[in-house]
Amino acid sequence: MPSSTPCYRRSFLFLALLSACSSAPGTVDGAGTAGGGGDAAAMQALRRDLAPPGWGPGADHCAWRGVTCAGGGGAVTAIDLPRRGLRGDFAAAAELRELARLDLSANSLSGGVPQALGALTRLEFLDLSMNALAGAVPPALGGASRLRFLNLSNNALSGAIPDELRGLKGLQELQISGNNLTGALPGWLAGLPGLRVLSAYENALSGPIPPGLGLSSELQVLNLHSNSLEGSIPSSLFERGNLQVLILTLNRLNGTIPDTIGRCRGLSNVRIGDNLLSGAIPASVGDAASLTYFEASTNDLSGGIPAQLAQCANLTLLNLAYNRLAGEVPDVLGELRSLQELIVSGNGLGGEFPRSILRCRNLSKLDLSYNAFRGDLPENICNGSRLQFLVLDHNEFSGGIPAGIGGCTRLLELQLGSNNLSGEIPAEIGKVKSLQIALNLSSNHFTGPLPRELGRLDKLVVLDLSRNEISGQIPGDMRGMLSLIEVNLSNNRLAGAIPVFGPFQKSAASSFSGNAELCGDPLTVDCGSSIYGSSYGTETDHRGISYRVALAVVGSCVLIFSLVSLLVALFMWRERQEKEEEEAKKKAAEVAVAAAAPQVVASAVFVESLQQAIDFQSCVKATFKDENEVGDGTFSTTYRAVMPSGTVVSVKKLKSVDRAVVQQRTKVVRELERLAHIGHENLVRPIGYVLYDDVALLLHQHLANGTLLQLLHDNGERRKADWPRLLSIAVDVAQGLAFLHQVATVHLDVCSGNVFLDSRYNALLGEVEISRLLDPTKGTASISAVAGSFGYIPPEYAYTMRVTVPGNVYSFGVVLLEILTSKLPAVDEAFGEGVDLVKWVHAAPARGETPEQIMDPRLSAVSFAWRRQMLAVLRVAMLCTERAPAKRPRMKKVVEMLQEARDS
Ligand SMILES: *[C@@H]1O[C@H](CO)[C@@H](O)[C@H](O)[C@H]1NC(C)=O
Ligand SMILES: *[C@@H]1O[C@H](CO)[C@@H](O)[C@H](O)[C@H]1NC(C)=O
Ligand SMILES: *[C@@H]1O[C@H](CO)[C@@H](O)[C@H](O)[C@H]1NC(C)=O
Ligand SMILES: *[C@@H]1O[C@H](CO)[C@@H](O)[C@H](O)[C@H]1NC(C)=O
Ligand SMILES: *[C@@H]1O[C@H](CO)[C@@H](O)[C@H](O)[C@H]1NC(C)=O
Ligand SMILES: *[C@@H]1O[C@H](CO)[C@@H](O)[C@H](O)[C@H]1NC(C)=O
Ligand SMILES: *[C@@H]1O[C@H](CO)[C@@H](O)[C@H](O)[C@H]1NC(C)=O
Ligand SMILES: *[C@@H]1O[C@H](CO)[C@@H](O)[C@H](O)[C@H]1NC(C)=O
């Protein structure tokens, strides 16, 4: 009887309202069991104040979403409403006498923590994390004496942890991180017999870690980083041997690392950097055989690196930088087969290059900088390894760069500055095509000419060869270094004319100074009408152009290193943080889990409707099979993953790059979740993430029809690209971008490869989270390297180094031109040397060409109507790609113009 249902509901609601008005909160309803009737009133009040989606209008509150009742009496025992966008008042929940579980995490709740919650004597689980709750932690909360799990993290709470909470004798997990709590950690925490997890990082806590903590309970996770804690690390923490995660980074702890640390056979994660710890690293640390991360940088530790660390077979990261360690890197560390990062910079270490470390086949970062290592670099310095960062500057290495450097096929950064290296720069350096972040050989004694092979390093952004004795001319081949932004060849013995090459002439004169016989722009020394003069003169006109070409050549959608690595780092941080929260539970569950499956340490699905559909193990497993791969970039690989439910999601696997310390990580995760909520139909939404081992996976909706790039340029796809479809795609992208600008966000990588097409060819702009997370105006990160994809980068970027709203408009204009011409935006044979798509189109009138000669005839020749619309869109594209940023229209206007073109 479908028609009667609404009426039935209405009368029920009426009854409910009646009962809400007539019965006082908490009173016993005549018909129900104790608490049931009172719960009806409280639940109606909660519905009114909090308005959770899916609540009501029926009066049977036990049927509302996220509500669990006990028995038939209507007494509410659990409310689970995480991530519902709630912003109202939830104090009425305090009247639900039987409530054992209340989860309102990740909403937008503000005001204070209601002190009435303290009256809930059956409450065992309270999660109010990730809201905007302010004020003090109410002392009355101590009345909820059955609480076992209390999570108030990531709010704006202030004041001290009230002593009244000492009544919570059953606490097992206390999470209060990411607030503004002050005062000391109360001493009674050490007396809680069941405490397993204590997480209070990112507050303003002072005083000592409570003495005796860990003695009376099986403490597994202690995370107190980023506070102002003082005193020493109590040896009691390790006494019972249960500790698994210890994170105390960024405090003012002093004293030594307790010898008892070795009792914790399950200790996997130790991070105690940025404190005032002194004394030696105890040899017993080698008994903590499960150690995966050991980070103790920036302390005052002395003595040697204990050889016993070699017993920690799973050690992945060892960071002892900036201490006062002396001696050599023990040979036995070469047995650490899992080691990925060895960072010992800024100590007093010496001896020869620790060759044995090269036996760690998974080593990706080796940082020996700022020590006193000496002798030759080993010939087999890479030998097919995974080395990405080789940072050896500020040592006393001598001899030459071994030709074996050519084997470093994955190297992103090579820092050899301020050593005693000599000889010629070997031509093999040109084989290290992966070099991207920097090649820095400054302040050594290199001699001879610059190898022409440097020109093969077309991804390299920073080149510093200053302060050597390099002679000869600067080879013209260096113009192949298409990504160069910063160059320094000063203080050498170079001679002749500086080749005409954008990055050279755009540099300061100081980049070339101190070479007595060097001439030409940017030096003030004119080459005159001498041997170099003529060729120099003719090339001058192309100067501006060649720089654009430099930016414009490399393939589409190269997401630049710094951005992605930062994102990866953020996720690595999230991993650590989640690890502590999850590890304890996971460990227990591990026995039951199939041995083959990797252990997911953290995961979340933001979109509620998909929560049932997504299976994290399936996401992980999809990435193991090459046939699922749908795209591969330098820093991420995308896979198609089919869930057991049949749902298909896109899984982007970020390649682990660096676990640099990044501030504000909790906020960033929050931002990611928020982004999933802001949504616009033309933006790809993140739907979740999975973290395991060192891997971060970002989940997105799967868009069946690939990217605009493929549609335009894959021959197979090309025939599906008719004009109305392309125009509609253009309008979609414009709308997505306009929305982003409206919410004050600049996209960092507008290009056709980031335009995704769903099954009906609706277009969605992707890579939005990177833009949101790294939005410079939000202070999350500063953009210091190139941002965007070559060919789409606005000309002003070369000097502003900032991605702006008009810059986005330019990149969008390039996408329009790409649609109109079916040509790739970077160099095309047809454009001629030094010309990219934008230049080619803008110069058409000067060449005497008509728009027909520019637009793809397969589209424009089909009908007059199509041709007319294309001409209109071409005008929009020309406006968007105006050289002067101020002349470009706003995206809102662009949307209007495109819609007009479509309706004409
Ligand atoms: C809050 O902490 C509790 C107890 O430790 C935990 O079970 C819960 O997952 C945490 N909530 C969030 C959103 O991480
Ligand atoms: C934290 O509290 C202190 C005073 O207790 C206040 O000065 C500071 O502004 C607060 N910080 C934040 C981020 O709320
Ligand atoms: C550690 O710091 C405290 C003050 O915070 C000081 O009283 C104590 O002497 C210091 N201990 C050591 C070993 O430096
Ligand atoms: C190292 O890791 C593997 C896989 O996670 C585990 O099976 C092994 O027990 C670990 N080794 C130690 C010494 O903890
Ligand atoms: C080295 O890395 C590869 C790929 O990440 C991984 O499969 C392998 O298990 C690692 N080896 C060790 C010893 O950790
Ligand atoms: C180079 O690596 C191979 C394994 O990839 C190894 O067998 C060989 O001994 C290494 N060479 C040196 C000199 O270490
Ligand atoms: C290259 O290394 C030296 C140290 O030897 C450093 O001073 C300089 O800033 C580095 N150059 C660049 C461009 O980072
Ligand atoms: C620098 O290297 C040369 C040989 O290349 C050597 O003679 C000289 O002693 C070294 N200087 C220092 C300070 O190590």
TrEMBL record:
Q: Where is the signal peptide?
A: 1-23
Q: Which UniProt keywords apply?
A: ATP-binding, Glycoprotein, Kinase, Leucine-rich repeat, Membrane, Nucleotide-binding, Receptor, Repeat, Signal, Transferase, Transmembrane, Transmembrane helix
The record gives the membrane topology as:
Single-pass membrane protein; Single-pass type I membrane protein
**Which residue intervals define the domain Protein kinase in the entry?**
624-904
Where would you say this protein principally sits, based on its record?
membrane
Annotated localization: Cell membrane; Membrane
User: Would you say which domain of life the source belongs to?
Assistant: Eukaryota
Q: Which residues cross the membrane?
A: 549-573
Annotated Gene Ontology cellular component terms? plasma membrane
A biological-process GO annotation: plant organ development
Q: Which residues bind ATP?
A: 653
- MF annotations from Gene Ontology: ATP binding; protein kinase activity
Q: Does the keyword Glycoprotein apply?
A: yes
Presence of keyword Cytoplasm: no
Question: What's the protein called, per UniProt?
Answer: Leucine-rich repeat receptor-like tyrosine-protein kinase PXC3
| Organism of this sequence | Zea mays
